Amino acid sequence: MAEDVVQPDPVEGEASERSRARLATGLERLLSVEAEERALRRLLGALAEAAPAIDSVVLVVREGERLEVLAQVGLDDGAPAEVSGGIAAEVLAAGAARSAPRPGVPFPPGTRHAAGAPLVGCAVPGALLAGTRGDAPLDADALLLLRAAADRAARALDRERLGRAHEDARETLRRAEADLETRRRTVDFILGVVGHDLRNPLGAIHMSASLLHTKGGLVGWQARAIERMRSSAGRMGRIIQDLLSYTRTRLGNGIPVSPRPASFDVVARKVVDELRSVNSDRKVEIAIHGDAAGEWDPDRLEQVVSNLVSNAIDHGDPDVPVRVEVDGDDPDRVLLHVRNGGAGIPPEVLAHLFEPFARGPDEKSRKASGLGLGLYISREIVRGHGGDIAAQSVEGETTVTVDLPRRCAARPAA
Fold it and tell me: Is domain 16-166 annotated with CATH 3.40.50.980?
């Protein structure tokens, strides 16, 4: 026997359709409110508009032992800023939606029913409460909208909290960087003062040792001791000069250059001859190509060549010659290449090779300034001429290249 087909009541179907339409419109209103703290009141207002039965909406959060009203719509002007117990406490204790008749504070007089939904997943415990003066409790649609609004409020509070934490972190970082820069400048200033004040007495020691060495008539161990004193004083003088050059760049003055007509090949040959005489056990080759004339500060370029060649001697394989090449084939610029054999420089060291106080893995082999300032000072001098300096290293050879325009195009030191 066939079963009768039950036809839906047309009036009931139309009512259900209108209910779904109102629910969809209400959800759309809630989702259109951006999830940020300043929009919390608009979110509560959108909830009240979406569910006509709702007369008042309250957002409460737990601050320590208190429940504070963070935002509200429809409360009296004298409504309390804190809530004690009631439906808010029940919702937070249960972690789930709750409803209650005659809810009392913080709702205004005449509120007959209220419902609350927790702020699920929010870092700050809280609840969104809605009250109605109607005879019946809030229906299923209103409760669904309440839960959706509570979820939206939780997202807004979390976003605001994360934004505030981000700003606090940025401010902390800014203060730390400012403090670090102040400390660095203080250290730089002290280094400059110490270097300047040591220069004169050390100069007197070096001059006296040189005088004894040349005219003292000393022989044997006495002559060797004086020579060690003179050599050590000269090395200390170079360290102090490096410190003064470093502090000059760090304190904003840069390394001054005085361009005048000069020949790079003359500068390079002079430095190579000097370094050959004090490193008789090492072979240093030099090659000149093209026209090496230009307008530079030859004294500063001597510092650059001396630092680069000394560095190559100190770190290179003693069985492989250091090669110095001056390339003047380009009409607009002159290139200097300083090459040494040996193990390559690791990439993590190469990336910071020209930074102040940078030290390689074989730092104990340094015989120059010992401070890790030579390459940094060379970079600043080259930049002061408007040029560039770079290094590349592969297994078996390291090359430092200086690229100088023929006419000094000075630019501010970094």
Answer: no
